[in-house]
Amino acid sequence: MARKQKTELRNPFVYQGYVSPDYFCDRTVETEELISNLQNGRNTVLISPRRIGKTGLIKNTFYQLHRTEKESVCIYIDIMPTKNQHEFVQMLGNAIVQDVLSREQQAMKRLLTFFGSWRPVFSTDPMTGLPTVSVSIEPKQSEMTLKTIFDYLVQSRREVYIAIDEFQQITNYPEAGLEALLRSYIQFAPNVHFVFSGSKRHLMTQIFTSPDRPFYQSTVSMGLSPLYKEVYYDFARRFFEAKKGSLSEDVFYGLYQQLRGVTRSIQLLLNRLYETEKNIVSIQQVNEAVLHIVNSGTMQYEELSSFLTDNQLSLLKAIAKEGCIESPQSNRFITDYNLPSTSSVKTALDVLLDKDLIQRTEKGFTVSDYFFETWLKRLP
After folding, report:
1. Which runs of E-coded beta strand occur in the chain?
2. Are 70 and 177 in contact (CB under 8 A)?
3. How far apart (Å, rounded) are the C-alpha atoms in residues 203 and 154?
4. Distance between CA 122 and CA 125 in Å, rounded?
5. pLDDT at position 76, please?
6. What are phi and psi of 365, to 5 degrees?
């Protein structure tokens, strides 16, 4: 961890992954709250829209935990790509194995002895050159393996912190009993503490607040709002001044508003501006950077659009051009954009929400990615 802290980046505006607190903006209160929850045995549900920064918050929390609890185990997995219980268990097992490998070789031997059915596959990461290992788990053994994983973590006698990102994905699994299984194992693992994070509020709420669901009243909740623009400006300004440049407060507040306070989009834009500009003094510089990012993403946007039906793409373009629409099924909106029937709009809306191409906010529905929205506005 000390090596990460000393890392100096050529471009300090990180928009993917996590490096160190030096390149992480604020979230001091949220980090302290999450650490307090975990250290005091309160499993936490963290809900926020995507791209606001919940993954960075989790990684920053784990970074801070490792500084004070050097023997603790911090494991992060994003289960969005998983399709069933077996893939979930496989991902969790691989994360545990990778953590053990990073600490000591002898521990790896003990781990594989403990899990006699695991078939390890050793390889080298082509990017870092570091050794990696994955395990193969038989699908029919996944339920028993999950129990064994918890047995191993309890017997490790370490404090274990596990973050499962996009946890609502388990509602799409064909197996119906994973929630109950996890709940039953968690309650007998006092040294294993969880963060369940998700971006789909309605699904996460159903899992954790419905009286008929296994996780009912078993966690505390946290939300995540956009960073305060004043704090964010101070964070960004320091990096421009460190290279003998400047960042206009008015310009920053303008781009913050333009990008709706979405952390990832702002970081990507600042990353581009930091690369190409020294003194940011006009909104024209911002617009040129936006145009570059949009043009660079054209191939990706075209590919993404090709997987949508005509109705879905028509609705997506309409929402982009509207900016924000409170009632997508209103007669005015359907007429203005020559959309199909109300029922067809409702069907398309549900698909776009499920694909995270649009999001529901307090003011209405918007396209989730500002740069994709800008590209869509240019379409006929």
Report:
1. 44-47, 73-78, 119-124, 131-136, 160-165, 192-198, 220-223, 246-247, 279-280, 358-360, 365-367
2. no
3. 29
4. 10
5. 97
6. -95, 135
Q: How confident is the prediction for the chain on average, in pLDDT?
A: 92
Instruction: Kindly indicate the confidence band of residue 280, based on its pLDDT and cuts at 50, 70 and 90.
Output: very high
CB 342 within 8 A of CB 332: no
Q: What are 207's two structure tokens?
A: 């899992």
Both tokens of 233, joined, read: 């400006």
CB 349 within 8 A of CB 238: no
| DSSP, res 72 | -
Backbone angles phi, psi at 165, to 5 degrees: -85, 150
Please report, for residues 11, 67, 130, 278, the alpha-carbon distance to residue 195 in angstroms, rounded to integers and kept in the order given: 30, 19, 28, 40
pLDDT the model gives residue 1? 37
Q: Quick one: 268 exposed, middle or buried, by C-beta within 10 A (0-12, 13-18, 19+)?
A: buried
Average of pLDDT values for 45-49? 94
DSSP state letters, 200-227: -HHHHHHHHH-TTSTTTTSSEEEE--PP
The one-letter amino acid code at 188 reads F
* Greatest pairwise CA separation for the chain in angstroms: 68
Assess whether pLDDT exceeds 70 at residue 5: no
Rounded CA separation 119/145 (Å): 13
The Cα angle at residue 182 between residues 181 and 185, in degrees rounded to 5: 85
Give the number of other CB atoms < 10 A from CB of residue 266.
26
**Of 137 and 303, the one with more pLDDT:** 303
pTM: 0.89
Non-local CB neighbours of 51 within 8 Å, separated by 6+ positions: 262, 263, 264, 265, 368, 369
Confidence of residue 362 (pLDDT cuts 50, 70, 90): confident
pLDDT in tens, 54-85: 999 999 999 999 999 989 999 999 999 999 99
If you search the block for the tokens 């994905």, which residue do you land on? 169
Opening angle at CA 346, ends 345 and 352, nearest 5: 85
Q: Is 369 exposed, middle or buried (0-12, 13-18, 19+ CB in 10 A)?
A: buried
